[in-house]
Amino acid sequence: VEFVYKEHKIYNGKPKLEGLPATYVESGDEAQTLELVLEDTSINTRIVLLYTIYEAFPVIARSVRFECDSDEKITLLSAMSACVDLPDKDYEMIDLAGVWARERHVRRHKLDYGIQSIYSMRGCSSYQFNPFLALARENADEFQGQVYGFSLVYSGNFLAQTEVDNYDTARVLMGIHPNGFKWTLGKGESFQTPEMVMVYSEAGLNGMSQTFHKLYRTRLARGTWRDKVRPILINSWEAFYFDFDAPKLLGLADAAADLGMELFVLDDGWFGKRDNDWCALGDWEVNEEKIKGGLPALAERIHGLGLKFGLWVEPEMISEDSDLYREYPDWALKIPGRAMNRSRHQLNLDITRKEVRDHIMNQIFKVLDACKADYVKWDMNRSVDNVFSAALPKERQGEVYHRYVLAVYEMMESLVQRYPNLLFESCSGGGGRFDAGMLYYSPQIWCSDNTDAIDRLKIQYGTSFGYPVSAMGAHVSVCPNHQSGRITPFETRGTVASSGTFGYELDLMKMSEEDKKTAREQILKYKEIEHLVQSGDYYRLINPFENNNHVLWQFVSKDKKETVVCGVRLHSEANPYIYLFYPQGLDADLHYEDIATGKVYTGAALMKAGLPLPLTTGDYQPIRFTFKAVEK
Ligand code: GLA
C-alpha cells in the first residue's frame, strides 16, 4: 500500500469512536483533534489518523480509521492504533507481566536492537501481559526523569512492541494483534481501531501514572459513580463459595450491616443448578433450592438492613451442562470438526451473534429489575478459544476475535445505559481483563483473585502504573489466606485493601470479637481517607519489587492540605536499622501536623529530611501516617 497525504482538519473537542471505548471530553474546549487523511488511490482507500490533545493533560490520544471506497473488497491484515518513532534508543521498557493470582508485576529492561514485544492472543487483554508499556530514560525513577507511557484502550488481543533499528532509533507500535485478525471491507465501509493513549512525564514514573489516573478516572470512566466514593462491600465468594442458602446470606448481610459495611454482593452460585463450576452458566434464573422465596425477597431483606444489593454474573459464558446449551448447542464458539478446549469446564458464548447477546442480556435484565440491584460484578472466567462463529462464513473467521470484543462492549453499554445508577465492577478470574477498555464501562475492576495482603502489595503497585487506585477492587479476607496460606495481621489486610475500592470477603459470622472490633475501626478509618482513594494524588514511595523490608505509598489531597502515607513493614528485625521515608507532593511552606503525635513539621522538612518509620516487631506490620495542614 502507499498512503499519501490528502487533507487534514483541526477542530475543538474529540469524536466518539463507533462501538469502542475511548477517552472523551465534556466540553469542546477541553481538547483539540487533528484528523489527517491519507489516501491510496490505486485501491481507493483512505486512512484517517485521529490525534487528540487535551488542555489539562500531557496526553495524545491516537486512533486510525480505514475507509474503503473501492468497488473491489479490501482485506485488512493488520490495523494498528499507533506507531511512534523516537529519535534515540536510550530508554528502558517497563511492562506489566503475570499470571492468574500474580497479575501486573513490573518488569524493566533495556531497549536493544530488534523487537521486544508484549501481547495477548487470548481474546482478552490477559493476565500474561497488560496493554500498557512505558519507556523511561535510564536515570528516570519514580520521582524524576523523562517517561513516555502508552496504553491501549482495548480489552482483546493486542500487540505492544518497541523496535530499535540500526540507526539507534526506537519505534513503539501498539494495536490489535495481527495474528488471527483479518477484516474485510466493502465499498462505503470503514474500520475503526481502538485508541492508544500516550502520556509524557518529566516527573518520573509517578508523574506518568498520575496523568493516567486523572485522565482515566475523569475522562474515560463514566456514569454516576465516576466521581463518587464507592460503598464498602461484603462479597460472598470467599465466605461461602457455592455453599450457601438464604439464611446464611442473610446472616452475612446482617453482620456486614452491623460492622458498618454498605453493599452486599452475592457472588457466583445463585442461579441455575450452580453448585460447582461445572454447570449452569447461561441459566440466569435464581436457584430456588438455595434461595427459597427468590431473589427479590432476599434483596428486599438486604435493602431493609440498609445495605445496597449486588449480583455476580458471567454473561459471556456457557456450561455444557446447562439448559441453554441443551437448547442451543451451536451458541458456543467451537471449531467444526475439532475437539473443544475447555477452561474452568466452560465455553465462550458466540456473542458475536445478536440473538445470543439479546437472549443473555434480557435474562440478566429481568433478574436485575426484579431485585432492584444496585451493583453488578461482570466476570469472565476463561480466555476466548475455539474461535469460530457458526454465523460467519469461513473466510470471515478472522473477524471473530474483534467482533467478540465489540460484542462485550455492546452488552456492557446496554447495561450502563439501562441502569445509569448501577455501580458496575468488571472482573476476569481476578485481574485477567484489567484494562482501559473496561474502565469506560466499569469504574472499578476486581484486581486479582489473590487476596493475600502481601502478594497484593506487588499486584496493586504494578496496577497503579497505568490505572487509578479508585479502580482497583481490594478486599480483606480470612487467614490463613485461601490463595497463599499466609497469615497476616487483620489490620495489615485492612491497610492494603483500603488503598483500593474497599471491601471484605470472608465469613463475618466466624470472625473473632477482636477482629470484629478491628474491622469496625478499620471501616471508620477508611471513611477518613475514602475521598483520597477516590480522587487524591497517588504516589508510589517504596517499591515492593526492590525492597524486601517495607513497602510504602501515599495519597495527597488536591489542595495538598492532607496526606496519608500507608504501607507494610514486611520483616521484623532485631535491633533494626533506622529507615527514613520522604512524603511527596506537599506544599513546602505549609505546616503539617502528624495526627498521631501532634508534632508539626513544614512540608519542606517532611519532603527533604523525612521521618523514621516506626520500630515495630513482628512480620507484616501495618504503617500509617496522617498529616494535616495547620496554622503555624
Ligand atoms: C472469579 C472471580 C472471583 C469469583 C469467582 C466466582 O474467579 O474473580 O472473584 O467471582 O470467579 O466463580
Sum up the structure in keywords.
632 residues, alpha+beta, 10-stranded antiparallel β-sheet, 8-stranded parallel beta barrel, 34 strands, 22% helix, binds alpha-D-galactopyranose
Q: Would you tell me the overall average pLDDT?
A: 97
Q: What is the radius of gyration?
A: 25 Å
The kinds of small molecule bound in this structure are: alpha-D-galactopyranose
Low-confidence stretches: none
Task: Please give the alpha-carbon distance between the first and last residues.
Answer: 68 Å
Helix content: 10-25%
Helix/strand-derived class? alpha+beta
Measured by DSSP, the beta-strand proportion falls in 25-35%
Q: How many strands in all?
A: 34
Biggest sheet character: 10 strands, antiparallel
- The tally of helices reads 12
Report on the structure:
The protein is α+β, with helices and mostly antiparallel strands. It is built from 12 helices and 34 strands. The strands form 7 sheets. Strands 1, 2, 3, 4, 7, 8, 10, 11, 15 and 16 form a 10-stranded antiparallel beta sheet that branches. An 8-stranded parallel beta barrel has the order 17-18-19-22-23-24-25-26, surrounded by 6 helices. The longest helix is centred in the last third of the chain and has 23 residues. The mean pLDDT is 97. Alpha-D-galactopyranose binds next to loops.
SSE layout and pairings?
Blueprint: E1 4-12, E2 31-40, E3 45-54, E4 59-68, E5 74-76, E6 80-86, E7 91-97, E8 105-110, E9 114-120, E10 129-137, E11 147-153, E12 158-164, E13 170-176, E14 183-185, E15 190-192, E16 195-201, H1 204-219, E17 233-235, H2 237-240, H3 246-259, E18 263-266, H4 294-304, E19 308-313, E20 317-319, H5 323-327, E21 346-348, H6 354-371, E22 375-378, H7 400-418, E23 423-426, H8 436-439, E24 444-446, H9 453-463, E25 472-477, H10 490-497, E26 501-505, H11 513-535, E27 537-542, E28 550-556, E29 562-569, E30 580-581, E31 591-594, E32 600-602, H12 603-608, E33 611-612, E34 621-630
Parallel strand pairs: 17-18, 17-26, 18-19, 19-22, 22-23, 23-24, 24-25, 25-26
Antiparallel strand pairs: 1-2, 2-3, 3-4, 4-15, 4-16, 5-14, 6-13, 7-8, 7-10, 9-12, 10-11, 11-16, 12-13, 20-21, 27-28, 28-29, 29-34, 30-33, 31-32, 31-34
Helix pairs in contact: 6-7, 9-10, 10-11
The structure holds alpha-D-galactopyranose.
